[in-house]
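User: Structure tokens for this complex, please. No commentary.
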Amino acid sequence: MLNLKKIVVLKNNLAHFNSVFSVDCVIFGFDEGELKILLIERNTVPYINWWALPGNLINQNETLDASANRILYELTGVKDVLMEQYFTFDGVKRHPQGRILTVAYYAILRLSTHKTLKPVTDFAKDAAWINVKELPKLAFDHQQIVEKGLEKIKNQIKNQPIAFELLPEKFTLTQIQQVYELILDKKLDKRNFRKKILNFNILKELDEKQEGVSFRAATLYKFDKRKYTQFFGKGISF
Amino acid sequence: MLNLKKIVVLKNNLAHFNSVFSVDCVIFGFDEGELKILLIERNTVPYINWWALPGNLINQNETLDASANRILYELTGVKDVLMEQYFTFDGVKRHPQGRILTVAYYAILRLSTHKTLKPVTDFAKDAAWINVKELPKLAFDHQQIVEKGLEKIKNQIKNQPIAFELLPEKFTLTQIQQVYELILDKKLDKRNFRKKILNFNILKELDEKQEGVSFRAATLYKFDKRKYTQFFGKGISF
DNA sequence: CCAAAAGTGTTCCCTCTACACCCATGC
DNA sequence: GCATGGGTGTAGAGGGAACACTTTTGG
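Assistant:
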């Protein structure tokens, strides 16, 4: 039980100990020609029944990175994602319950390997991949967090070949171009794009072709990790 | 006084309410051909008498940005600096007193206008500008925070003309080049540098010359804010 | 006249850009 | 045979990198 001494200590520190930390995750995926993000439908107040980013309070003795992974898993069933922190949002008026500071994480992943989503706690009612261009109204300041995340990957895709992490193992050049166009939000010239991306020598042409299309089948490519490693750091710009 | 109800509420929330937020500031300045950062000498345990970044706990009802400004002022006497958040450090084992999460801020400023430093609280014993290349051992994980800050401005100087914020109002081309060389940590070709920087059309050549030097006096330049604004966003690369 | 830094052009190469038509395939 | 996307080349412009000597000034 609480003894008086403890209470006094608590009270003295109160000014500094009534902030709460949380983590929100912006997870990007690419599917059917669309850039999507992973959202949950909240099952708790406040904002019950609203769509929101997977996010929750962090635990004690848990690093931020570990929190992000745990929370993402609990709310969506998605596991083992390498996320990166990109901004800390200042929540003086952010949460009706009081002050919350939120560290925002993002990641980019192969949507095809994470199609089935299943929240493992009842904090979330449901989870789904939603087209970035058709987002519903989001809880809290999640709209803003998503926007900043989009900016972030826009900058990153110009400097690191992250596009491949969105694609299936084997992909066509047109698919990569689509990813770039979606993220940069502009049309790119097909010939110039292909020249450029092939010049980096980080792709391996396969003997296979696309299947099941009703037009000329495109050659499939694979991402060459060994060359990528050499390449890393140089950067690409479009 | 505390009533029982309040205590219970406190206790229930305890798991989430015993993290503490702090802010650390990495302030860059340029002087006498050296890139310096602003450090304080701590006057409190832990790490009493150690050099450290200006940093402290944030207050309730204070935005992160406001905290950073207040803390910088209290510990160094430096006021009204536009700082930018760049990373949140995860302090599970960071502080002997318990868990602390630290939001790191950086700024770049004209050292000449902030030469006199004077802590206004006795949390800091002293404050000083220290050459980045000759840093003492720093308290906590401040070494790491500084390194990440250096990376940050390295990336930024390639894309935004932040160098001017380090220089006095009137400066020579050689001085800007020095700033670039210090931050990028490599030698640049004089002719190419001058061509490039002048081509951006963000400098205004003055009728004045350098004074008090025992060699040919260099032309002074001024930063042209109007042209800068048009220019902003295009980026520079070296 | 010497030391110290200021100031100044050219060439080569590579990369970016703009641009349009034929090819293979499934239906 | 037609609709659909796959696949290809070239010319011109602009920017980056490499490179060395003359000028000005104070002491």
